[in-house]
Amino acid sequence: MGKVSAARWSAAAAGGALAALCTLAPATMASTKAATTVAHTKKASCDWAIATSVASCGGMHALVAAAKKEGVLNVITLPANWANYGTIMKDFTAKYGIKINDANPDGSSQDEINAMVQLKGQTRAPDVLDMGTPFAVKADQEHLLAPYRVLTWSAIPASAKAADSTWYDDYGGYIAIGYDPSKVKVAPTSFKDLLKPIYKNEIAINGNPTEAGAAFAAVFAAALANGGSLHNIAPGISYFANLHQEGNFVPVTGSATTVESGQTPILIWWDYLLASEVQPSVKNFKIVIPSDAHYAGYYSQAINKNAPDPAAARLWEEYLYSKVGQNLWLEGKTRPIELSHLVARQAVNRAAYKALPPVEGATEIASVPELTAGETVVAKQWSAKVG
Predict the structure, then answer these.
(1) N or C: which end of the chain has fewer CB within 10 A?
(2) Any bridge partners for residue 336, and if so which?
(3) What angle do CA 265, 269, 274 make, to 5 degrees?
(4) H-assigned helices in 200-253
């Protein structure tokens, strides 16, 4: 989730691209040549577990060699059809020969934190994390993350990364309403619409918002549509309580499967996940960004401080934040954090860029303090008010 100020901005003026939020400083990326030069002054025994940049431990050649020697990368909660991760993982393995173990692909951001704690010291502990920003902040506060700056660090806006480089935003989009038109005969276009009796037993989010970042974002979007603000998420909780009381909300983990089966023909989720996970398997599936809430956000990337494969973890991050990795996310219908940088350098996949849905009107993104405060409120009130 992106962490700019609560100020509104015009998506129309920015060409509909979420990445237009990012005011980028001139790139000052360390070159591979410079990093390689450093390698001659580093000891062969350099410890990648504490390396804070590729240059600090011998450069890219040294990193690739160390990662190949480890031969394994443990990721967690990455469904193959989420943000194009299936292709990303396949391409990473093809390029470096490193096997990827994807644990608990349908898990939540909280599951990632739990795994770091419970599997500490084990070879199957996660090396890298992809989680909602409030959970990345939480993991950082619990001292679970390793600081690391990728080569393209300067292309990531200051508002989208931790000052200590323990986490940094990766890709984002808009909270949207997706629905199966074969079962939903009246198209919903807003959160207000979803309260209508015609949608009884039809609406879901992708899990418990105290654990799942996308579900938490859905609550924030609902708050904006119901008199709340980025400083006040409580109306979003009240909205879902009302939706549940009306019989419209189905308290299950919504997914492509629940939409296909008809259990939840309406799903509130990120636009790019509705597009990549649901739309391919549900004929004529429709996606609309609600007219009463243009809420956008990013997910965040991080490295486990106790990663069993620390070199592979750092190589993974370098790959994700390279031109190739960023464009692969873009091809998954997301807005990668370095999108503005790619566009400025004419390094963007033009077809994938043009395929992003345009958004007209003001968009809101929560800052880190707003996300953290909102998470606290949801943790205290969701169970009691919604169940």
Answers:
(1) C
(2) 171
(3) 70
(4) 213-225, 234-245
- β-pairing verdict for 362-363 and 9-10: antiparallel
Q: Please tell me the pTM assigned to this model.
A: 0.77
How many angstroms separate the CA atoms of 145 and 306, rounded? 8
Q: Which residues contact 90 (CB under 8 A, 6 or more apart)?
A: none
Summarize pLDDT for 266-281 with one digit per residue, the tens: 999 999 999 988 999 9
Beta pairing, strands 99-103 & 72-76: parallel
- Amino acid in the structure at residue 221: A
For residue 104 the two structure tokens come to: 């608990």
Amino acid letter for position 252: V
Q: Are residues 289 and 202 in the same domain?
A: yes
Report CA torsion sign: 129, 135, 136, 142. negative
> 59-112: per-residue pLDDT in tens?
999 999 999 999 999 999 999 989 999 999 999 999 999 999 999 998 999 999
Q: Are residues 367 and 355 in the same domain?
A: no
- 244 in any annotated domain: yes
List the domain range (segments joined by +) for residue 198.
Answer: 174-296+363-385
| Together in a domain, 180 and 282 | yes
Using CA of residue 328, residue 334, residue 338, residue 340, what is the dihedral sign? positive
Same domain for 45 and 105, yes or no, is yes
Does 369 share its domain with 240?
yes
